[in-house]
Design a protein that fits this description.
homodimer, 432 residues, alpha/beta, Aldehyde Dehydrogenase, Chain A, domain 1, Aldehyde Dehydrogenase, Chain A, domain 2, 2 domains, Ald_DH_N (chains A, B), Gamma-glutamyl phosphate reductase (chains A, B)
Chain lengths: 432, 432
């Protein structure tokens, strides 16, 4: 024993002396009250201040981002991850413009969803209110920090962010910019909190903070999402992977089939709404496949196909059982001949992750059955699966795409960050 | 070793040879497809068959219920629990009439909640769809079996029920009646499953059945709900306890304050929407308390009060810190003098369980602040808290009263047992 031993243990990952995750979440909870009752004008002024502020802070943001990128390269991060981590002037301008799009949306708070007057004269109204404190756990994409903070602010929520170690320097600067924007319009900076400096323990505490955090949104890899779903005691909205299907029905137009499949696969293969499997009606396979597949091949797509496809279009690799369940996120596609709509529905029920499926058809009965019977967040007829996107749906940006059925399903915008409450107005009524 | 030993272990609680919880949930999942696409007429015919069937089966139901009551008495069940377990002809008629009320509701399935046409001509619509398979874990109340099955059927869901050992005989007969009603109109009996015969293991498997069960609703004691929230991997909608407050503001009318508090406490003290704490503005305490408290005392209510109250109305017991956090569910009430609205809001923030709070006031500014700032599922002005109820709100019956913010908040009817999906209709559009 030496006289210099500290008498109190200080956790090594508690970077802010005397602070704790719980203390920050409690400050977020207090700040959430000011956000919940803030007028739309004030929230929009904060968003405009953020759009201006993030561009004004470009130099600081990019310096921090360079540090993160250097650390990432040293740590051997894959090129794709480094690309998602990287900011530049144009991407920063993109962040500002996303924030302005969110500001331009209708304020969801205070909207009346249902209302009625009971026989005894009591008036009941269900109105939109913020959740309170929204938690987000995501991987090294600095744009998610700005998107989620802006969506939370627009919907009157405080937010607690855990953004991934690889982006920690960039996120630290971005969060300071967001907090300054809040302060500049008289809203509490504490409405935006990070737990990044607590490392993995910060994420764990966030997941255990039932009562302090109202909802937690994990956004990132399947393994991240699974870990949060399994560990969290806070209610979770699951955003998920997409094994996305397009079914080419007997009556599908060749040109639509060709362009929709090509767009859905090639326009951006690394995202969750890209198509992974094409099913084609046996009676139309000979007509459709040469056009559909040669268009894909010309863009460098590898075709994983069953024997029936290979008989009609030989330049393929043989598909295995694994192919039907794979989210490639690359220029690969699985193609299978089916006996018709029922067979296609069976295949989709078995392999779909419930994200997006599309049918190409001229037959209204087939299209209506497909729309009714496919149990996915988004079901389409004669359109590219790439349209499953908050921006495309007019939401400004998205918190993520929910593949679960509770609370939110499909692209999540500001409305999906709200709860409701019932307002009951009486004149002395009691229950008989 | 003897030659008569069984060669295969059969779990003692697996009453159906070769069956399993998973097998039943998979059959429910298959059956859910027929429910999801069933027309409203067919679902209503099944509900009418159930209403007729439960009355026709009275003799069988009451015989089974007698067995449960005898077992309950032997096991030393409290009188209150025995009362909730007991059925008689009049209660069976009540079950039938609740089922008919549910049949009379508008079918929520297929309703369009939002829709728009994108600039490129793609049409998007958000429509209500069933969850698929709804799980419920509840305690020994046979009426919940009928209520939840009927609400699930109306909303196009299959259901998996775990109803508490004390009611197992009654529930077995009721579930047979429900399954017969489905079959009688051509719907699959497998849409209603019980896991009661698997005992506690059945509940555990239900909570682990992520992917087979879409949402789980626990209904019962605080400890049951906490256990489900903690253990379940299936998304849970928490129904909760009510530490319910009424705040009597400076301008509260004496007659309204007196009758609202009395009704909220005395009409049915054992339920979650009964008031537990009354807060009274200091400037109105002398005017209001004698009337409010003597009316309560005349109905046998014990008043747990702070010193300021005791100074004005001496016939009280001294309140302790515990009283402010207690859901009495009995003829007890806690009463406190506060300095005004801010003080009342602070108290409510600290002790409320977020169920229902009501203000009695003539002051519109105070009422609007209370409605805006109290963060509870239901917030009222000048009305009894006993109105927080699915039946009172016009929902026919209720699955429970949600005190969480995700998906459903307040009384849960058929709409709260639905999810949504996006229907996208194009004419060959691809993303640019």
């Amino acid at each position: 024993m030496t006289t210099t031993s500290p008498t109190v243990d200080v956790p090594a990952n508690d970077a802010v002396s005397g602070d704790s995750v719980t203390a920050r979440l409690e400050r977020a909870r207090v700040a959430s009250r000011a956000l919940a009752t803030a007028n739309g004008d004030v929230k929009n002024a904060a968003l405009e201040a953020l759009a201006v502020g993030v561009v004004a802070a470009s130099e600081r943001v990019l310096a921090a981002n360079t540090t993160d990128l250097e650390n990432g390269r040293t740590a051997g991060l894959a090129d794709g991850l480094l690309d998602r981590l990287r900011l530049d002037d144009s991407r920063i301008a993109g962040l500002a413009s996303a924030v302005r799009e969110i500001a331009a949306l209708t304020d969801p708070i205070g909207q009346t969803l249902r209302g009625s007057k009971l026989p005894n004269g009591v008036k009941i109204d269900q109105v939109r209110v913020p959740f309170g404190v929204v938690g987000a756990i995501y991987e090294a994409r600095p744009n998610v920090t700005i998107d989620i903070a802006a969506l939370a602010l627009k919907s009157g929520n405080a937010v607690a962010l855990r953004g991934g170690t690889a982006a920690e320097n960039t996120n630290r600067v971005l969060i300071a910019v967001i907090r300054d924007a809040l302060t500049s319009v008289g809203l509490p900076a504490d409405a935006v909190q990070t737990v990044d400096d607590f490392g993995r323990a910060g994420a764990t505490e966030l997941m255990q903070a039932r009562g302090l955090v109202d909802v937690l949104v994990p956004r990132g890899s399947a393994s991240l999402i699974q870990a949060v779903v399994t560990e969290s005691r806070v209610p979770v909205i699951e955003t998920g992977a997409g094994v996305v299907h397009i079914y080419l029905d007997e009556t599908a137009r060749t040109d639509w089939a060709t362009e929709i499949v090509h767009n859905a696969k090639v326009q951006r293969p690394s995202v969750c709404n890209a198509v992974e499997t094409v099913l084609v009606h046996r009676a139309a396979a000979e007509r459709l496949l040469p056009s559909v597949l040669s268009r894909l091949a010309a863009s460098g797509v590898t075709i994983h196909a069953d024997e029936a496809v290979a008989g009609l279009y030989p330049d393929v690799v043989a598909a295995t059982e694994d192919d039907w369940a794979t989210e490639y996120m690359s220029l690969d596609i699985a193609v299978r001949v089916v006996d018709g709509l029922d067979d296609a529905l069976d295949h989709i029920r078995r392999y779909s992750t419930g994200h997006t499926e599309s049918i190409v058809t001229e037959d209204v009965a087939a299209s209506e059955r497909f729309l009714a019977e496919v149990d996915s967040a988004v079901v389409m007829v004669n359109a590219s699966t790439r349209f499953t996107d908050g921006g495309e749906f007019g939401f400004g940006a998205e918190v993520g795409i929910s593949t679960q059925k509770l609370h939110a399903r499909g692209p999540m915008g500001v409305s999906e960050l709200t709860s409701t409450k019932w307002i009951v107005r009486g004149t002395g009524q009691v229950r008989g």
